[in-house]
Amino acid sequence: MPTIITDSAAEDAVPTHDPSVAELIAARPSLRMHALDGLMFEGVRLDAIAQDLGTPCWVMGAGTVRARLRRLREAAAEAALPLGIHYAVKANDHLAVLSLLRAEGVGADVVSGGELARSTAVGFDPRQVVFSGVGKTPDELRAALGAGIGQINVESAEELDQLSALATTMGRAARVALRINPDVDAGTHAKITTGLADNKFGIAYADAPALFRRAASLPGIEPVGFAVHIGSQITEASPFRSAYRRMADLVRSVRADGLPVSVLDCGGGLGISYRDGPEGSPRTWFAAIRQELGDLDLRLMIEPGRWLVGPAGLLLASVLLVKRTAGAPFLVLDAAMNDLLRPSLYEAWHGIVPLSPRAALASRQPTNIVGPVCETGDSFATDRLLPPLAPGMRVAILDAGAYGAVMSSTYNARPLAAQAMLDGERWQTIRERQPVPALWAGETVPSWCAAP
After folding, report:
1. Which parts of the sequence bind pyridoxal 5'-phosphate (predicted)?
2. CATH code of 387's domain
């Protein structure tokens, strides 16, 4: 069992101390604290972005994404694994991020018709798109078939029957991988595990051989292999190895029945370090793939999301006020749970770093960091050791490039924050702050509700 969580209530590993500002920066190659310009991301002064766009605002680093993709590819080459990389669009579906990754030659893993449309809108080759997800609608399946995507990961016998009927009606053949639930505990937060028998995802392992045989007999279905994904934020190899070992046994069993299996989608889930410890290692992950699957003559693919884009994103925020109490003070930011939901949803830990070089050097004290939304759960950190910060000062919330902006809402009628992308020493706005009237632009009022 991986030891990535020591507090069962938290998504991320919980060590015995909070890393200092210096330790957080030192663990992130894209960050540095300039003595005069303050916190720099890649080659850009973050205060300059906050000044121009206001806060809260999101910042994505294109160079950081490229560097992490390069690390993945180098690790795959060292392991002699010809892996197909399909970016998990759900992690961050901004068109700029998708365009960047498409230009780097990766494919896409989508889980909705909207993500499929976004991916094709920026030019992903449909043949390099994989459609996953437990509840695809008939319209989404028709769109996938019509686009001619490379693979549909089917998650139930019921979905397989539905897809067969639709493909037959359309005169298409759907390339299908059966997503298998291997009943392997990834050791992650309950809300991000996907490979246990009581999770909603995938086909029961014991049912897989019979369903694969049935798929081979259905019209409009071309079964090519299997898919597996056991969860997110995994930083040790043992759960991967356990899952892949079971998948290898399944492939051998089905082949022994005379059925060809040519593809295995190894999923994603490699974790990052939200603190200052080691993150999930691509080399270790690929060694597990190599050890368990390398001799099966399969076309292998992976679906990284968080690992590629998580450390490439920041949320910039300003201090609204410091509320003094009998205990630790409340530092109220202008960012909130509607912007970054992960701390409220998963009790997730994110590093928080002042943009000011002077503030970063000050001694730390326990602080509660919260947002202005009218919910007790609108909290980024409790009793976090931070330097004292005054109203108007700015902070960066780290490692927010995955499941950050993409999960934002307009709760409390708060407009969606502006977004920027930087690349080296240049940056550009990639989404303007949502105007307040846009919050109700699509709403209509029935005549019987209108005032006389």
Report:
1. 269, 303-306, 403
2. 2.40.37.10
- Residue 98, amino acid: L
If pLDDT is split at 50, 70 and 90, which confidence band does 186 have?
very low
Whether residue 329 sits in one domain with residue 279: no
Place of tokens 């015995």: 16
pLDDT tens profile 398-439: 999 999 999 999 999 999 999 999 999 999 999 999 999 999
Residues 145 and 275 in one domain: yes
Residue 234 · residue 280 · CB < 8 Å: yes
Question: Up-side HSE of residue 241: CA atoms within 13 Å toward CB?
Answer: 11
Q: What's the one-letter identity of residue 228?
A: V
**Same-domain status, 302 and 381:** no
Look at residues 158, 109, 118 and name the one whose alpha carbon lies nearest to residue 138.
Answer: 158
* Residue 425 C-alpha from the chain's centroid: 26
Spatial CA neighbour of 82 closest among 308, 260, 309, 294? 294
Summarised one tens digit per residue, pLDDT across range 76-132 is 999 999 999 999 999 999 999 999 999 999 999 999 999 999 999 999 999 999 999
| Domain co-membership, 304 together with 314 | no
Specify if 73 maps to a domain. yes
Number of domains the chain is built from: 2
| Active centre residues (catalytic) | 374
Residue 2, domain member (yes or no): no
**Known binding-site positions for substrate:** 306, 342, 346, 375, 403
Range of the domain at 198: 63-309
> Is the bond leading into 446 cis (omega within 30 degrees of zero)?
no
**In the 3-class helix/strand/coil scheme, how is 72-121 assigned residue by residue?**
HHHHHHHCCCCCEEEEEHHHCCCHHHHHHHHHCCCEEEECCHHHHHHHHH
